[in-house]
Amino acid sequence: MTALTLSTAAAPGLRADAIVIGVAKGAQGPVVAPGAEAVDKAYDGRLAGLLETLGASGAEGELTKLPAPAGFKAPLVVAVGLGAEPGAGEDEDEDAAPGYEPEALRRAAGVAARALAGSRKAAFALPVDGPGAIGAIGEGVLLGAYSFDVYKGGAQDARAKNGKAPLAEAALLGGKPRDAAHKGAVARAVAVCEELNRARDLVNMPPNDLTPAAFADLTRTAAEEHGLTVQVLDEKALIKGGYGGILGVGGGSAAAPRLVKLSYRHPEAKKHLAFVGKGITYDSGGISLKPAGHNETMKCDMSGAAAVFAAVVAAARLGLEVDVTGWLALAENMPSGSAVRPGDVLRMYSGKTVEVLNTDAEGRLVLADALWAASQENPDAIVDVATLTGAMVLALGSRTFGVMTNDDAFRTAVHEAAEEVGEPAWPMPLPEHLRKGMESPVADIANMGERWGGGLVAGLFLREFVGEGITWAHLDIAGPAFNEGGPFGYTPKGGTGSAVRTLVRLAELTAEGDLG
Hints:
Layout: E1 3-7, E2 18-26, E3 29-32, H1 37-42, H2 47-53, E4 63-67, E5 76-84, H3 102-115, E6 121-125, H4 131-144, H5 155-162, E7 169-173, H6 180-204, H7 212-226, E8 229-233, H8 235-241, H9 244-250, E9 258-264, E10 272-283, H10 303-318, E11 323-333, E12 345-347, E13 353-355, H11 363-375, E14 381-386, H12 390-396, E15 401-405, H13 408-420, E16 425-427, E17 445-446, H14 454-463, E18 471-476, E19 482-483, E20 494-495, H15 500-511
Parallel strand pairs: 1-7, 2-5, 2-6, 6-7, 10-11, 10-14, 13-17, 14-18, 15-16
Antiparallel strand pairs: 2-3, 4-5, 8-9, 9-11, 12-13, 15-18, 19-20
C-alpha cells in the first residue's frame, strides 16, 4: 500500500514525480486552494487563470496536469477539483469559519492518487487546517491508490512495465512530523484503510477461491496476527448447535457453510458491540435461480461479512477501549438435490420456524442465526451489515445504504456516524403493517412478505431474531457495496469496502462514551 509521510517542506524544493494542489469552483471561475501558495507564486500568481485556460473549473473529480514552473524539482503539477469554494454558496452560514469538508479532501486526494499510478512519489499540497484534514487526505490517497491485480498473469511484472503500480509514496505537505495529533491521524488512516482494502480484496476475490471455509481460514490468520480470538463453527458444529438458517442456505453447495466469531477485547472496555455480516460467498439464488444478467457480480454478496471482518481488525489495531465481536455468517447459495426448496420450513437457531417462500431471500436466513447467536452475549448494541435487497437499491440508488433500527436515537447516531466518515446513508422506517405480510400458515414466519417495500420487509424479518431489549441496527449496503461503473473519487470499480468506516466510527464513539 502507498506509504504516507508528513512533510513541512516547501513544494518547490521537494523531490517528487508530481505536486498535487487543490482548485475550487469559485463564483468567478477556478480558485487556487490553500496549500498551493508557493506553487501559485511560481506561476506569478496566474495559476488560476492558466487552469481556466486549460478548461479547469474546480469541479469535484476534475483533474488537470501541467508542467511545473522553472526551478521546481518535481516536473509535474496536478490540479484536482475540490468542488465549490467554501463560503461561495448562497446558503453558507456567514458566521461559520470557511474550510474544506473532509470528504471533499478525501475525494480529491483519491482522484489524484489513482491518476498517479506508476509514480514513485507525489507531494500533496492540499488545504490542511489540522489533523482532521491530514487524516482525510491520507485516507483519500490510500483508498484511491487501491488496485486489485492478483489474478492478472504476471501482475507485478506487468504493472512495472506498464507503469501501473500504485503510487508508492505520498508526502502530505502541511503535516507536522513531530505533532502527535498529526501522526495519530496518519496512523489511524493507515489502520482503517489497510483493513478497508482487505475487505475490497475479499469482495473482488472469485468465489471458486473464496469459499466459506477459505474465508474462515483468512480470519484465523488475521486473528493470530492481531491478537484476536476466533471460533469457527464448521458443518458438524452447526448441525449440533441447530443453526437451521445457515445450514439451509448452504445445503445446496459442495462448499459447506461456516459461522465465524471474531472477538476483540480491551481490558478497560465498558461497552460491547456486536457486528454481524452476511457472507454469501456466491449467490446463484438457489432453486429460485437468478436470471442471466443478475448473477454475474454475485461474488459480492459477502460484502457485509468482509466489512465486519475488516472493522473488528481495525478496532484491534487502533486499540479502542471497547469490546467488539464480529459474527460472519458464511455460506454459498447453490441449486442442487440437497438445496433448500420453496415451501421448506427451517428451524432456526432461535427455535423459531421459517417457511422459505423464495430461496433467493437467503441472506436474511443466515443473518437470523447469527443475530440470535450475537444476542446471547447481550451486547450493548448489534449492527448487522448485508447486501440484502434489490429493493434498497431501487429506493436509494447505487451509492447510499439504508439504515433501519429498533431505536430512533440509535438510527440517528448510526446515520450521523456514516455521514461523518463520508459514507452516504439514509434512515429508513420499519412500518409495522408490513409484518403481517410475512405471516405463514405452517411456520412462525415466512422469509418473504409484501413486494413493495421489500427492503423494509427484510429489516422487519431480521428484527424478529434480535434478543429482547438489545439495541440493533441493520445496514443494507446492496447499492454501494460493489461499483459496476467507473471509478470516482477514492472509490474503485468493483468492491468498495462499504460500511467499514461507519462500523469503525461507531466503535470509536462507543469507546469515547459518545454512543449510548
